[in-house]
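Dear colleagues,

As part of the handover before I leave the project, I'm documenting each prediction I ran so the next person doesn't have to rerun anything. This entry is a single chain, and its sequence is reproduced below.
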Amino acid sequence: MPTLSRRFLIASAAALGFGGSARAQTRGSRALAVYKSPTCGCCEGWAAHMRQAGFTVAVHVVADPGTVRRARGLPDALASCHTGVIDGYAIEGHVPAADVVRLLAERPAAIGLAAPGMPLGSPGMETPDGRKAPFDTLLVLRSGQTRVFVRHGRG
């Protein structure tokens, strides 16, 4: 009987692991640390977007978020107003939650993702009239090179 009980427990644990919210289900952590300057308001909008997607977000106010970006190996050319860190990856700027979920599911050999600048209409950069500019989420490779991970707002 101990084998049956063990099998039952393993099967039950597996079933629980696949249940729950479909939001932000990843093989890694859902704990996201966000580093932002004291004066940036759009960073809070992005943090709220990530929370709505099921991430646990801790916002850290720092004098210069660029120090975090550079320490994680992200080139200054990809800079935005905040840097997130999750499960070993850096997330620079207003990257949509769905892109982060995909990154954590696929686990590529990379530094992380970046949405350089502050793309109009991206999460945290919404406008009252709903205008959006097309932008790309870039996968930042360990070499510092990038490739398009997801295109947003293009037909």
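The longest strand covers residues 135-141. The chain has four helices and seven strands.

All the best with the project,
I.
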